[in-house]
Amino acid sequence: MTKPILSASLLPLLALAGCSLAPHYTRPEVAAAPAWKPVDGWQPANPSDQAPRTDWWSGFGDRTLDDLIVRAHAHNQTIAQAAATYRQARAITREARASLFPTVSASGSVTHSESGGSRTIVTNGVASSGGGSAQTSYRVGLDGSWQPDLFGQIANTVANARATEQARRADLASAQLAIDGELATNYLGLRATDAQIISLSATVEAYERSLQIATNRYNAGIAPHSDVFQGQSQLASARSDFEGQKRTRAQFEDAIAVLVGENAAAFSLPPVPGWAPTTPEVPVAVPSTLLERRPDIAAAERQVAAANAQIGVDRAAFFPTLNLTGSGGFNNDTLSGLFSSAASLWSVGASLAQTIFDAGARRARVAADRAAYDAAVANYRQVTLAAFQDVQDNLAATAILARQEALLREASVAADRSEASVRFQYQSGIVVYTDVVSAQATALAARRALIQIQSDRQTTAVALIQALGGGWQAGVPTVR
Questions:
Q1: Per-residue pLDDT at 335
Q2: What whole-number distance in Å separates Cα of residue 294 and Cα of residue 299?
Q3: Per-residue pLDDT for 16 more than 60?
Q4: Hey, which of 200, 324, 384, 428 would disulfide with 242, CB 3.0 to 4.6 Å?
Q5: Three-state secondary structure string covering 277-291
């Protein structure tokens, strides 16, 4: 008659299983502008959430860059570390979920025991020997235990682990996006350095010709020696700049080697003859809602969800815990009769535990959890605000740099023409060599500025792509 009474007493507690003490979670609100600040050539747009994401780096039209990105995904150690951390988080989630189910264990044992020993017994003057007793016992059984999740402690632990897992998944995507962006920036910087090296090489040759003209005029007695000195100084400076660009190229090459997971000493990227910079076209309409798929924003929001679930975990400590146990099996002195009905045994049990006094430790934990939640909310909002700033800055820079490139291209063409004209005039004795030096310096500065602005446009495009979470096409929503 005890079993029905036990079941009736536990029924109200079991009915509470699945109750959660975590606050109802809603994603923290962040004020988002309906459109970006006005930028010449831009207008608001509605996103197309169903549009798939593409490999954004292919917009630069460089197969070497495409290959480097693939190699980085396969061998970059930062990505490998983030992937391992994500796998660890997934395993922790599975471990937490396992606590929702009973634990069952099997056991078996053989016990042999003896009592007493060989001894002499004297009865009416007659001696006799007696022996001790020996016994062997065999036992097999199953033991089970289960802690019903009456107040959602386990469920909230699972929710915390799942949200943390999703945050680690977002961290992995963030690591990939960061590595992709850094690799693209370094590669494009290397190609821009190649262009600078080609430009400086041509400049050195031009300066050598000008110095030869000045030397010939000096030897002919129609030009002062200072013209030769100026030509030598200008040539040496150009050669120094040429060597400096070679050093910059080596640094870019070594950085790329590390990003693709290779030893810098064994890695090389030869120059590409005829390489020309290509900048992806940014559409005139970029929706602000694209920021929802930025992995750092997704990770920050999932951390808020994890902090919210942790509040429920620690609030459950204010309520009792119920443990149900049961065991069954067979126990017999002989192996042949081990599984007979007479050798069977079983037991069931239940226990309740409740902390009566802990000097405020539980309240302190819940207070700490609420503070951690508030901190996670603040971090989420800060990450989102910084993301809006990042996009706004790069949108403005993209439009401005495009206009600057057009102006610098015009300036470079004019400076080259001026240099050629002044050099011819000097050779004809119309102007002094100082005018040649000035015209050549202006032309070189204009050419280098044009190459630099082209590189800046490319790296700004990479930065805008990263700021938008991997491109300006709306696509897969943030993982939840």
A1: 79
A2: 9
A3: no
A4: 200
A5: CCCCCCCCCCCHHHH
